[in-house]
TrEMBL record:
Its EC number is 3.4.24.-. Pfam families: PmbA_TldD_1st (PF01523), PmbA_TldD_2nd (PF19290), PmbA_TldD_3rd (PF19289). It comes from Lysobacter soyae. The keyword DNA repair does not apply. Residues 246-454 form the Metalloprotease TldD/E C-terminal domain. Keywords: Hydrolase, Metalloprotease, Protease. Coiled coil: none annotated. The keyword Cytoplasm does not apply. Residues 133-239 form the Metalloprotease TldD/E central domain. This is Metalloprotease PmbA.
Length: 457
């Protein structure tokens, strides 16, 4: 392997200076907008850097370093809106960007719902949630870790015949959001990921599978050996798959797949879907949508949480609150625009949700499987077969047939179908062993009956 030149971030933590610079730029841009007659304005300034090393079959394939900087601004002239952006912080570039946004606003239609979020909703307390853990980026070290990970996987089982590559990546970002209400919010975060994908078997019998670890701190990643070995075991487990006979049966979604179900629910209760009347949960606030034992709590202020923040993308203060309590939908997910369209108030969800926790009624996935005489365990989903207007759900799936709590054989080439509204209401088990690699904490979910379409006799 050739020696690679290290690509580094500064050894000294200069995030405070970078945030101070971006804050100064934000204030300067807001003054420019005001001078040009804008009635309201907002600006988002960010700077990020990262390093990604990818290897395959023991050799480095790519090493990429990136450093990006951007300023995005929006101006309002009454209820006419204009947006522009630039990556250049020079004053003449900022001036030109402001002029472009103002020119755009003059040609847009008046929209009664446009404008900044209400001033009294702005966050007053900007807290640190322990999301900043920068390290020295060394390309040689990243390549070595990726090679070690892939090697551990390839050595784990003789049935591992090839590799689809292993990647070690790190990133850091600082940002400032400010608006003409006088709000200024700053954030900084880091992220690290190690991912490996391996191939088991040969010819048409090959199966590809992988595993990854991700964390805010580099020392919180799973070891290279454990990631490689997990990727190998996942690939080997997929060998010799069969189909299933068409019919109805219990379906258990692994924690990784269960996140997608909850994600579909979040999409259905988001403001943009609701005001467009493109949701199967339209007008469901205050109504049961899950069994009475299900609670879904948003927790934006968890130290070390992937999506922890004091304010949303519009500066609105975030707060811990239930989205679902006792199975009943308590509120929608709203930014200021969708809230006005619906005649409601922003819930601090401009830009998405911030750390969700779904409660459980089973200790772990194993206990759910043992409690189900025969079921299909979903570990992989394909396709985009979700109709958000009707809730109809049809996805290609792979996983395992489980009988009496034990895996009988791998399954591939089938389709599972149902209706999300019914699936949500009828799910009867959620495990406590959630996948920690996401801001959405939900365990495995069992739906007691779905249509499974296969070609087995």
């Amino acid at each position: 392997m050739n020696t690679l030149t290290p690509i580094d971030v500064p050894a000294r933590d200069d995030s405070a200076e970078r945030i101070a610079l971006l804050t100064s730029v934000a204030e300067q841009v807001l003054e420019m907008c005001k001078a040009r007659g804008a009635t309201q304005s907002e600006v988002d300034c960010s700077e990020s850097s990262g390093l990604t090393a990818t290897v395959r079959m023991g050799e480095a394939e790519t090493v990429e370093s990136n450093r990006d900087r951007g300023v995005s601004l929006t101006v309002y002239f009454g209820q006419r809106k204009g947006t522009a952006s630039t990556g250049d912080l020079a004053e003449e570039s900022l001036q030109a960007t402001v002029e472009q946004a103002c020119a755009i606003a003059k040609y847009t239609e008046t929209d009664p719902a446009s404008g900044l979020a209400d001033a009294d909703l702005m966050a007053k307390d900007i807290r640190d949630f322990d999301l900043w853990h920068p390290t020295h980026y060394d390309a040689d070290a990243f390549v070595a870790e990726a090679i070690a990970c892939e090697a551990a996987g390839r050595a784990f089982d003789k049935r591992i015949t090839n590799s689809d590559g292993c990647t070690m990546a790190a990133s850091s970002a600082v940002g400032v959001y400010a608006n003409s209400h006088g709000f200024i919010g700053t954030e900084r975060d880091t992220g690290y990921t190690l991912a490996c994908a391996l191939i088991a078997g040969e010819g048409e019998a090959m199966q590809r599978e992988g595993w990854y670890t991700t964390a805010i701190r580099r020392d919180a990643l799973e070891s290279a050996q454990s990631v490689g070995e997990r990727a190998a075991s996942e690939a080997v487990a997929r060998l010799s798959p069969r189909s299933l006979p068409t019919g109805a049966m219990p379906v258990v979604f692994s924690p990784e797949m269960a996140r997608g179900l909850i994600g579909a629910f979040l999409g259905a209760v988001s403001g943009s879907a609701l005001y467009r009347e493109a949701s199967f949960l339209l007008d469901h606030a205050g109504k049961p949508v899950f069994p009475s034992w299900v609670d879904i709590l948003e927790t934006p202020h968890v130290p070390g949480g992937f999506r922890s923040t004091s304010f949303d993308a519009e500066g609105v203060a975030t707060r811990e609150s239930a989205i679902v309590a006792g199975g009943v939908l308590q509120r929608y997910l709203l930014g200021s625009y969708s809230a006005r369209k619906l005649g409601l108030t922003s819930t601090g969800n401009a830009g998405g949700v911030h750390n969700l926790r779904v409660n459980a009624n089973a200790p772990d996935l194993k206990s759910i499987l043992q409690d189900t005489p025969r079921c299909f365990l979903v570990t992989s989903l394909m396709g985009q077969g979700v109709n958000m207007i009707t809730g109809d759900y049809s996805r290609g799936a792979a996983g395992f047939l489980v009988e009496n709590g034990e895996i009988a054989y791998a399954v591939d080439g089938i389709t599972i179908a149902g209706n999300l509204k019914t699936m949500f209401q009828e799910m009867d088990a959620i495990s406590a062993d959630f996948d920690p690699r996401s801001h959405l904490h939900v365990g495995a979910i069992r739906v007691p009956s779905m249509t499974v379409a296969g070609n087995a006799a």
